[in-house]
Amino acid sequence: QVHLVESGGGLVQAGGSLSLSCVVSDTLFSGNAAGWYRQAPGRQRELVAAITSSGSPNYANSVKERFTISRDNTKNTMYLQMNNLKPEDTAVYYCNPDLLAGLGYEHWGQGTQVTVSS
């Protein structure tokens, strides 16, 4: 059974920063592309940042140049550094250590709430 533990969310003013972490109990983690998703109230879950198994990142246009995704395969952990946060970044953030599964991933964690006040 795969377990994900996301942490690092919170309440921050616009322009502030937060750093999210996700510890993954999956021995296949290092070989898979991974990603961070977010879901705002009333909206679909969306992919905001992705990273290949070797560490090459890709970002949604809405977060490009503000968010940085990274991973440490030795610790089975992935990260999302979020800078210059905006109120529209408010959402529950989820990690997905098996990006090929996409929204069909079967082991979502509880997510971590990020709230950005204006």
Radius of gyration: 13 Å
The beta-strand count equals: 10
Shape field: globular
Q: Strand fraction band? A: over 45%
Number of alpha- plus pi-helical segments: 0
Q: Strands across the major sheet, in which order?
A: 2-10-9-4-5-6
Structural class: mainly beta
What does this structure look like?
It is a single chain. The chain is globular, with a radius of gyration of 13 Å. A 6-stranded mixed beta sheet has the order 2-10-9-4-5-6, with no helix packed on it. It has a 4-stranded antiparallel beta sheet with strand order 1-3-8-7, with no helix packed on it. By secondary structure, it is mainly β. It has no helices and 10 strands. Helices cover 0% and strands 46% of the residues. The mean pLDDT is 96.
List the defining traits of the structure above.
globular; six-stranded mixed β-sheet; 118 residues; mainly beta; 0% helix
Summarize the model shown.
With 118 residues, the protein is mostly beta strands.
What order do the helices and strands come in, and which of them pair?
Layout: E1 4-7, E2 10-13, E3 18-24, E4 34-39, E5 46-51, E6 57-59, E7 67-72, E8 77-82, E9 91-96, E10 112-117
Parallel strand pairs: 2-10
Antiparallel strand pairs: 1-3, 3-8, 4-5, 4-9, 5-6, 7-8, 9-10
